[in-house]
Design goal:
The protein is an alpha+beta fold and 895 residues long. The relative contact order is 0.04.
């Protein structure tokens, strides 16, 4: 039996490669011995023969077989094999054209009766395109994961002493391709000394030779020196010696998860210490799932032996005073401070033997939209008898619990004197908690209406005389300490505490700043960035209008008066506008978590372009030659210096004061602890000094606190963001201020170990060339202008308005063997296919396509993204003829 060869992958240049499989059919008339009697035009074209050339040839000779022989009867044997297989059903064979690689086809034979000279009719068709296999989909998914940076792929071969790592693997550790380990031994040097047994290079004892799956978690050393937790999974190949011979797998960064787990474990340990053998009686009641828990301390508090208290909601009902839990524990818990999620109050609990026990009860509830209680978690601490007699709460018993709350808590007696304040209350009220004790509540918590500024009600009076407990109130703010200071908005609730006889014991007030928990650190950084843009929007528009005035005036002179003398000024104004736009994009987008070595002077100059826009202040910049560079996320450092300059300008007194801001930078050597929290070494010192109003001494210690501000419309995010960014870069910031003289902020950043990469400067020149260019842009004016540029550079060109037209033009020239030398693609096409999608299709047609991005987004992160996708160059709009010529010469060759 003669078996056809297995089908190889079809090359792009094979004959008929672009014909649709369902439309192709080659037909033959065959004699009884398998010789060709007649062949159709499609057959002649496919096998690349002329008219009549195939007549008399053996039909079997048109195909490639795995078994070959020089015996005379071999062709006859092949024909009999084809005849036996193709009469009953289509037979898979490999057609062999005169030139090119074999192609898979399906052959069907039908017997013909009564036809002169023909015994069989043969039809040859292309099989339908195979669907992507599951393996292909897995490989494609893996490639997408690697490109996204989510999962890093790697392979270790101890036998060959070779190691290979994907881009995403290196990115997790901050390594470049040159820094990646080249051998398994070098890779093992990155593993934490305590984790070597958990790595894929370690094999368990008494393991059989062969392949086995592996999964483990261990730490690897980052390029910057810290440890990164990774989860690794893959396949180990175990040699006969029991050692690992090879490993292939993936890893991904789980540092955040491990840190969270460690924090949760520490929190759980603290809770166990407090609620197990300690005095803190805790409980959790999950009404949604029927899961209830009471700590051992809760059982001891109520007089129950270990294991005696049943884990059910009725156990809480049994601990409540008679008559208060007739509607069940859930109803009683819902009645605590209606409208609020959290509360702290003094209540009476009933022990196992019926005694009343005063406790401080803290509670947090989760309520559904329908008002149903889903979950309640809380604690209780007994109030010592001595404290009840003296009318003061024992803060030592509950201090740790109250300190963990984000809400401010004030506890007052029946006369309205403050008995207790937690740390959050002291911070929000601007005083030490101990200093608030015994002071009247109306003096400590002075409320004003946010809109009108009129004094608000006394919370204690409101709670004591209300028919019901007030809901959460959000219309007030804390009265400012001085007329110049801002008011701090709060939401609050107050509840009167009564004993079993209904007598008032006191009042508990819970309040918070609603803005404090609304933003994560990253969200605060973004909010500050957009706040700065909003502050400078008018000034930036002013600078843009000045630049446009220069451009429009030069164009008007050239067109109306034929005076071209100002065109050079217009070109410089275009460059300045382009630079300002680039800075706006970088500032609005923020950092891309990519650190680069940056020279100090250009960094400060770019910061001033935004921060000093529209200012009439005298601004000076002094950076000595030879000042070291810094390794930073450039966008984040721009935000640091823009914040500091904006703050300096906003701190200026009104005219006739002449504002001045000085920026200085220098390299210096610091001794150990010369600057707190900085190790000894070489640093770059930045100083931003102003002659503004200065910062009051009482505010100086709080200026870096999130949401602290003395500005009427400020958010208090600017300096908190500055401090966070500087410390993330291994630096420190200090401040020196004198009221009426001015303020100086000093930033210290480690110097970069490597120098700034500088590209060789070349004079701008027109780069003439030869070739055909395909330009795709939906803007007629840009297409017309770029066409003129291409013509002036001696290039031939074709224009397309969208991706579909560009693909059709490229396909046409590719079919005749003359693909375009380069393709320039606009990214955004309104209502049509854009450049990114078009490029993906062009690469399928021609993997060697040379494509250039043309985009108005002049930002390094955008350029890096598209270059990594396979584009050859990034052409930022606007561009000159020389810019276009240089990029084309580089992409096509010869530049």
């Amino acid at each position: 039996m003669i078996d056809p060869a297995s089908t190889p992958a079809q090359p792009a240049h094979a004959p008929g490669a672009r014909e649709a499989a369902e439309d192709f059919c080659a037909v033959f008339a065959l004699a009884a011995d398998g010789r060709i009697v007649a062949a159709g035009p499609s057959a002649q074209a496919f096998w690349q023969t002329g008219d009549g050339e195939m007549i008399g040839e053996a039909f079997a000779s048109l195909f490639a077989f795995e078994v070959v022989s020089s015996e005379p009867d071999f062709l006859q044997a092949q024909w009999e094999a084809v005849l036996g297989g193709a009469l009953a059903q289509p037979l898979e064979l490999l057609a062999q054209p005169r030139e090119g690689a074999p192609r898979a086809v399906r052959v069907r034979l039908e017997q013909v009766r009564g036809a002169a000279g023909a015994a069989y009719f043969a039809s040859v068709r292309l099989p339908p395109a195979p669907a992507a296999s599951e393996n292909d989909e897995v490989i494609a998914a893996a490639r997408r994961l690697d490109e996204s940076g989510a999962i890093g792929f790697f392979e270790l071969d101890w036998t060959a002493g070779r190691a290979r790592f994907s881009t995403a693997w290196r990115k997790v550790l901050g390594l470049t391709a040159a820094e990646a380990p080249a051998t398994p031994a070098a890779w093992a040097g990155l593993i934490h000394p305590e984790d070597s047994a958990a790595s894929p290079g370690h094999a368990p004892r008494r393991v059989r030779a062969g392949e086995r799956t592996f999964a483990g978690e261990f730490r690897l050393r980052h390029q910057r020196g810290h440890w990164v937790w990774v989860h690794c999974t893959g396949v180990q190949t175990i040699a006969e010696s029991g050692e690992v011979a090879r490993f292939a797998g993936v890893h991904f960064d789980i540092t955040d998860r491990r840190e969270l787990e460690d924090a949760l474990a520490a929190n759980d340990a603290r809770l166990q210490d407090l609620s197990g053998g300690g005095p803190l009686a805790a409980f959790e009641l999950d009404f949604a799932h029927g899961d209830f828990w009471f700590s051992p301390a809760w059982a001891r508090l109520l007089g129950y032996a270990e294991g005696e208290l049943a884990p059910e909601a009725d156990s809480l009902s049994a601990a409540l005073p008679l008559g208060e839990a007739d509607d069940g524990a859930a109803a009683w818990l819902l009645a605590r401070t209606p409208g609020g999620d959290a509360s702290v109050e003094t209540v009476l609990l009933r022990t196992k033997d019926g005694r009343s026990l005063p406790v401080v009860l803290g509670l947090h509830r989760t309520v559904s939209r329908k008002g149903e209680l889903l979950r309640a978690v809380g604690f209780a601490c007994p109030v010592p008898a001595g404290a009840r007699e003296e009318g003061a709460l024992p803060a030592a018993l509950v201090e740790e619990t109250f300190a963990a709350l984000s809400e401010g808590v004030l506890v007052c007696d029946a006369e309205g004197a403050v008995l207790f304040a937690n740390a959050t209350a002291g911070r929000l009220l601007g005083a030490e908690p101990a200093a608030l004790a015994r002071r009247p509540l109306a003096e400590v918590l002075r409320l004003v209406h946010r809109e009108s500024g009129r004094p608000g009600a006394d919370p204690a009076d409101l709670a004591l005389h209300a028919d019901r407990t007030p809901t959460l109130i959000a219309e007030h703010a804390l009265a400012p300490a001085t007329p110049e200071a801002p008011s701090v908005p709060i939401v609050w609730s107050a509840r009167a505490v009564r004993d079993a006889a209904g007598r008032v014991l006191g009042v508990t007030i819970v309040f918070r700043d609603p803005e404090e928990m609304s933003l994560t650190p990253d969200e605060r950084t973004r909010a500050n960035r957009f706040e700065s843009l909003g502050l400078k929007a008018g000034a930036i528009a002013h600078d843009f209008n000045n630049l446009l005035a220069t451009i429009l005036g030069a164009v008007s002179l050239a067109r109306d008066n034929r005076d071209y003398s100002a065109l050079g000024d217009a070109e410089q104004a275009c460059d300045a506008a382009r630079g300002l736009t680039r800075q706006l994009l970088a500032f609005a987008k923020g950092g891309g978590a990519v650190q680069t070595v940056c020279a100090v002077r250009p960094l400060l100059e770019d910061a001033l372009k935004i921060a000093a826009a529209g200012s009439d202040a005298e601004i000076t910049l002094h950076v000595p030659e030879g000042t070291d560079a810094v390794l930073v996320d450039r966008s984040q450092l721009l935000q640091v210096f823009q914040n500091l300059v904006i703050n300096a300008l906003q701190a200026m007194p009104p005219p006739p004061h002449r504002p001045r801001v000085q920026l200085r930078a220098r390299s210096l050597m610091l001794a150990e602890q010369q600057v707190p929290e900085l190790a000894a070494g070489t640093y770059v010192e930045f100083e931003i000094r102003d002659n503004g109003s200065g910062i009051a001494p009482e505010h100086l210690a709080r200026i870096f606190d999130p949401f602290f501000t003395t500005k009427k419309h400020g958010t208090g995010l600017g300096l908190a963001t500055v401090l966070s960014i500087v410390r993330r870069h291994g630096g420190q910031i200090g401040v020196d201020s004198q009221v009426g003289v001015g303020t100086a902020f000093t930033v210290y950043l480690p110097r970069a170990a490597d120098p700034v990469e500088t590209a060789a400067r070349r004079a701008a020149s027109l780069r003439f060339g030869t070739g055909r260019i395909l330009l795709m842009d939906d803007d007629p004016k840009i297409s017309e202008l770029t066409s003129a540029m291409l013509a002036s550079l001696d290039y031939k060109y074709d224009l397309a308005r969208n991706g579909a037209e560009a693909i059709a033009l490229y396909q046409r020239y590719l079919n005749i063997g003359r693909p375009y030398d380069a393709v320039i693609l606009d990214l955004t096409v309104i209502g049509g296919m854009g450049g990114e999608e078009c490029f993906a299709t062009l690469r399928q047609l021609d993997p060697e396509v040379r494509a250039i991005v043309a985009s108005g987004y002049d930002h390094d992160d955008y350029a890096r993204k598209f270059l990594e996708q396979g584009f050859c160059a990034y052409l930022a709009k606007p561009y000159r003829v020389a810019d276009l010529g240089r990029i084309l010469k580089t992409v096509i060759g010869g530049g």
